Recover the amino acids of this structure.
């Protein structure tokens, strides 16, 4: 067997193994474990797509929360039944044709992704006119504008009340299925000529331009694909939590994604996956610091906000002292693993 | 709409705008030297209001001692912020610096939640600023009149430092070229620290007046004034101190007047500033007073 086929088999085997583990969890796992696993998958999707823009293209985009919002609302509006919508929109009725549209879950996810892509396309022209700090603040501003719109356009989003009682369609298969598809699609993109062009823009935009790379075209491609997967993940998130409101999708969400990809290593998909998994697990594990603690001799009352203090400190420590994060820009590869295994057998 | 109401709104707009302007000065000065959006600038504003609450409310200092003390301490906090979050990253890629700034901002906000608690606190408004006067049928809180005056006074003080003292000269040099400044025997770190001190000092002044205007202080109160002040700085031409104040006035006036004339769009008030930002970046990226930014990489 040649090398490529071995790797393909190994890839398929590891996906098979992943789904076997998921099956075992779905049969025997507790509800709490399943929730963490679902969160993990959604965060993996979000982080891998966010890393495509921030890590691979090297531009600081601070508005993924906008695309997640758009995806979540689009998807939720499509899966809710007409009767439910009438009950939810008490203050201002839902505008036509949204009040009659209804679609199965998978269509709603795709629609969420496409809607996010459409918005990304619309704002890409002002966004890519600028670079660096300005781009960061424009995208951050876009996130805020979307939040303001979600609050104000009551006929579409039901305003601050949000949407309640969505059906919990998102299960382990959906969330991990999307995560796997996202990882494969984005890895393929990164390893293509487009991906190399994006990395060239990251390293030196002027030099890349001189080599005939069109920065706008490639940044736009990364931005749109990232927005698509963020939108799909938004739909998954909506049907996981089953209640959405504008307060759910603040800059805070973007901040969490930023921590994930910085800790994982900016520019590494493997790093984004590891960071997301650590975050989903660590975020739960760290909840103990916000609970009252009893050390027998003395008691500490619960401190709300402590988790975020710890996260912020981790982010700053990583960026100041270990800028490469866990993976740097390296990726996991079978060659590397097989070489390691071979060496340990010999040694 | 009668003339009185328009006049009233104009005064409100100028007052709000001068607050944006004060905070924008800090952004513009730091950006001028480090090419960095100091995301934590708005949170220093929040810190200043809490310091003022504690100094005046708990230590029972009179306001004319407590407020300046809070401003000085915030200025020092600005230096500490630079030392901890930005100084280790002077030679790092800009994206790292920005991420560190965002991290510092969240750290300050959440530390405030942990230490002080998330429940909004009232702000002790001194008598002097509290009473309402009536001029030509207009009922105006004196604070609204004092705010632009204090802003202009502080602006002139700052302009004196920047254009008439040696430190100011060094600051202007540093904003043009780091290496050349260093070669002239100037201690760059001290100049940057001075910049942070002055910027944070003015943000504290803005924050304290903000809190007197809207006396609800909470750990996230600095976020929106911070973002809008940054937009004001871009509107005025980033790197230009007078521009920042002009941008602040324009943004404040624009926000108040739009809501006054078109009350139906008041829900979208917070989006207005960002739309201005996008328009400025599209059509006049250097802002009103700005010169083209020298890319210091």
């Amino acid at each position: 067997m040649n090398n490529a086929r071995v790797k393909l088999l190994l890839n398929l085997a590891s996906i098979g193994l992943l789904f076997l583990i998921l099956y075992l969890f779905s049969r025997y796992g507790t509800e709490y474990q399943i929730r963490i696993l679902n969160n993990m998958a959604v965060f993996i999707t979000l982080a891998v797509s966010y890393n495509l823009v921030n890590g691979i293209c090297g531009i600081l985009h601070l508005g993924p929360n906008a695309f997640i919002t758009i995806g979540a609302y689009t998807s939720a509006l499509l899966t809710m039944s007409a009767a439910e919508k009438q009950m939810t929109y008490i203050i201002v009725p839902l505008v036509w044709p949204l009040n009659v549209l209804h679609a199965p879950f998978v269509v709603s996810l795709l629609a969420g992704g496409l809607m996010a892509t459409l918005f990304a396309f619309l704002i890409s022209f002002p966004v890519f006119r600028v670079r660096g700090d300005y781009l960061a603040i424009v995208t951050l501003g876009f996130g805020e504008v979307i939040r303001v719109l979600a609050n104000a356009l009551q006929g579409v989003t039901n305003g601050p009340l949000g949407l309640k009682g969505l059906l919990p369609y998102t299960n382990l298969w959906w969330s991990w299925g999307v995560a796997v598809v996202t990882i494969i699609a984005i890895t393929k993109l990164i390893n293509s000529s487009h991906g190399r062009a994006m990395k060239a823009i990251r390293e030196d935009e002027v030099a890349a331009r001189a080599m005939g790379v069109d920065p706008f075209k490639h940044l736009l491609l990364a931005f749109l694909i990232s927005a698509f997967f963020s939108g799909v993940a938004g739909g998954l998130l909506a049907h996981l939590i089953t209640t959405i409101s504008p307060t759910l999708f603040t800059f805070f969400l973007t901040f969490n994604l930023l921590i994930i990809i910085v800790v994982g290593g900016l520019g590494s998909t493997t790093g984004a996956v590891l960071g997301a998994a650590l975050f989903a697990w660590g975020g739960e594990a760290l909840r103990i610091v916000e609970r009252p603690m009893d050390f027998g001799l003395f008691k500490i009352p619960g401190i709300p906000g402590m988790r975020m203090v710890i996260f912020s400190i981790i982010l700053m420590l990583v960026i100041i002292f270990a800028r490469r994060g866990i993976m740097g820009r390296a990726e996991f590869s079978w060659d590397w693993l097989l070489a390691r295994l071979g060496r340990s057998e010999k040694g | 709409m009668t003339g009185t109401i328009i006049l009233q709104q104009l005064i409100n707009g100028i007052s709000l705008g001068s607050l944006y302007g004060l905070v924008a000065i800090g952004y513009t000065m730091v950006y001028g030297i480090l090419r960095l959006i100091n995301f934590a600038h708005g949170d220093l504003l929040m810190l200043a209001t809490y310091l003022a609450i504690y100094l005046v409310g708990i230590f029972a200092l009179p306001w004319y001692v407590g407020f300046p003390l809070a401003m000085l301490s915030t200025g020092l906090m600005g230096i500490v912020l630079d030392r901890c979050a930005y100084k280790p990253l002077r030679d790092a890629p800009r994206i790292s610096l920005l991420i560190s700034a965002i991290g510092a901002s969240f750290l300050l906000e959440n530390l405030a939640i942990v230490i002080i608690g998330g429940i909004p606190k009232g702000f002790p408004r001194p008598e002097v600023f509290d009473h309402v006067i009536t001029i030509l049928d207009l009922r105006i809180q004196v604070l609204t009149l004092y705010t632009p005056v204090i802003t202009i006074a502080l602006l002139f003080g700052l302009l004196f430092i920047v254009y008439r003292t040696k430190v100011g000269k060094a600051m202007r040099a540093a904003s043009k070229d780091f290496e050349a400044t260093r070669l002239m025997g100037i201690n760059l770190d001290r100049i940057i620290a001075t910049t942070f001190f002055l910027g944070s000092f003015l943000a504290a002044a803005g924050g304290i007046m903000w809190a007197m205007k809207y006396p609800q202080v909470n750990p996230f109160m600095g976020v929106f004034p911070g973002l809008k002040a940054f937009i004001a700085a871009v509107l005025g031409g980033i790197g230009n101190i007078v521009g920042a104040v002009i941008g602040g006035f324009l943004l404040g006036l624009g926000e108040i007047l739009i809501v006054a004339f078109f009350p139906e769009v008041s829900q979208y008030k917070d989006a207005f500033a960002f739309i201005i930002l996008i328009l400025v970046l599209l059509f006049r990226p250097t802002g009103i007073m700005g010169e083209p930014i020298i890319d210091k990489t």
Q: What stands out?
A: Chain A has a mean pLDDT of 89. The first helix of chain A runs from residue 3 to 28. The longest strand of chain A covers residues 293-294. The radius of gyration of chain A is 21 Å.
